[in-house]
Write a structure and sequence with these properties.
With 335 residues, the chain is an alpha/beta fold. Helices cover 35% and strands 30% of the residues.
Length: 335
C-alpha cells in the first residue's frame, strides 16, 4: 500500500522581473525615462512528492531557490507556472484551513514580541489559530518540556540568548500543532549543543504527531541526523532526489582508500593521491572510475593487512556539486 502524499509539486516555476541600471547620475536620470529590466528564473520546473510523516532534506547553495520553493509551498509567493498541493490544499489560495495545518519556520525571522515574555505571544497565537484553551495548554506544556524552556517563556524575549530565542520561536510556531513543517535554516547561528537540541526536538515532534517536514540547512549534521531522503536543488532546478546514502554514489568524483600495510613508509606511486601516511597506515584518493585498478595495484604490490573504500563525506560531495557549475537532469534513486 503506497504512502499518502502530503506535498505534491508539479513543474513548479517562479520568475521575477528585476530592474537593471548602471551606476551614476546619467544612468539614474535615464532610468526615469526608460527602465531596463530582466527576468530572473529563481525556480524552474521543480517536481517532487513527499509522503505524510516523511522528513526530507532540501539542499542547495545560497540562491539556489530553496527558500523560494518553501515560500510558494507556504503560500507567501504565487508560482509563475506549475502546480503544488499540500495536504490537498493549493497554498497560493491561503485558505484558513490550510494555514491551520502548516507552519513555516525561518531561522532568520522572528514572530515573538521583543519586549514581552514569549508566553504572551503564545496567547496571541492561540487566539489567531483559535486553538481551544485546554488543547493549547497541553500542547504548550508538551513543547516546553521537549525543549526544556519552562523558565524562559516568562522572561522578555530581548533578554534571551539566540539559542533560547530560537527554541521559544519553535514552540510558538507549533502551538497549533501543524501537520506540515517547512523549516528554513532552523539552527542558523546556534552553537553545536543547541543545534543538537533543536534536531532532537524536530525528530521527536515528527514522531509524536506524524508531521511531514521539509528542511533546508547548511549544517549537514542537521540533514544527516533527521533525513533519510534528500532533494538537491541547483540554480533553480532539481538535481537529485533520493536516499542520502546514495548522494555520494551519484556525484562523488573520487573514492578514498584507507589501508593498513605490513611495511613502513611504502612507495605508493601510481596508487593514487596520498592524503596521509603514518607508518603503515595510508589514506589515498583516487578517481571513482579508476578505483578498482588502484585497489588491484595496491593489493598486488603490497602486503595489505586491512583495507576500506569510502565515498568522501557528504558535505564534500555537496560542495563539489555546487562548485562544478553543472546541473543536468534530476537523478532519482529508488527509496
Amino acid at each position: 500500500m503506497s504512502a499518502e502524499i502530503a506535498i505534491d509539486v508539479r513543474a513548479l516555476s517562479k520568475s521575477f522581473v528585476v530592474t537593471e541600471r548602471e551606476p551614476g547620475l546619467r544612468a539614474a536620470v535615464g532610468n526615469l525615462v526608460r527602465r531596463r529590466t530582466r527576468t530572473v528564473h529563481a525556480v524552474e520546473d521543480v517536481t517532487l512528492t513527499v509522503a505524510r510523516g516523511e522528513v526530507v532534506g532540501f539542499l542547495g547553495a545560497n540562491g539556489a531557490g530553496k527558500t523560494t520553493v518553501l515560500k510558494m509551498l507556504s503560500g507567501l509567493l504565487h508560482p509563475t507556472s506549475g502546480a503544488a498541493t499540500v495536504l490537498g490544499h493549493v497554498p497560493a489560495r491561503r485558505e484558513r484551513e490550510y494555514l491551520r495545518r502548516m507552519a513555516l519556520v525561518m531561522g532568520n525571522r522572528h514572530q515573538l514580541q521583543w519586549d514581552l515574555p514569549a508566553s504572551d505571544s503564545y496567547e496571541l497565537n492561540r487566539a489567531i489559530y483559535q486553538v481551544p484553551p485546554a488543547r493549547f495548554r497541553r500542547t504548550r506544556e508538551e513543547l516546553v518540556e521537549l525543549l526544556e524552556i519552562g523558565d524562559l517563556i516568562r522572561k522578555p524575549v530581548r533578554t534571551l540568548s539566540l539559542g533560547e530565542r530560537m527554541k521559544a520561536e519553535l514552540v510558538g510556531s507549533l502551538l497549533h500543532r501543524p501537520e506540515v513543517l517547512f523549516l528554513d535554516e532552523p539552527t542558523l547561528g546556534l552553537d553545536v549543543t543547541m543545534q543538537k537540541r533543536v534536531r532532537s526536538f524536530v525528530a521527536e515532534y515528527s514522531r509524536r504527531h506524524g508531521a511531514t517536514v521539509l528542511l533546508t540547512s547548511h549544517y549537514m549534521a542537521d540533514v544527516q541526523a533527521l533525513c533519510r531522503r534528500v532533494v538537491v536543488i541547483h540554480r533553480g532546478g532539481l538535481l537529485f532526489d533520493g536516499d542520502l546514502s546514495a548522494l555520494g554514489e551519484e556525484f562523488a568524483a573520487h573514492r578514498e582508500i584507507e589501508a593498513t600495510l605490513d611495511e613502513v613508509d611504502p612507495d605508493l606511486r601510481g596508487c593514487g593521491q596520498v592524503l596521509s601516511s603514518e607508518g603503515g597506515r595510508v589514506r589515498l584518493r583516487v578517481p571513482r572510475a579508476t578505483a578498482p585498478a588502484a585497489i588491484a595495484k595496491l593489493l598486488s604490490e603490497h602486503n595489505v593487512l586491512d583495507l576500506t573504500v569510502e565515498a568522501p563525506p557528504v558535505e564534500d560531495v555537496i560542495g563539489q556539486v555546487f562548485s562544478s557549475g553543472t546541473a543536468g537532469a534530476v537523478a532519482e534513486v529508488p527509496r
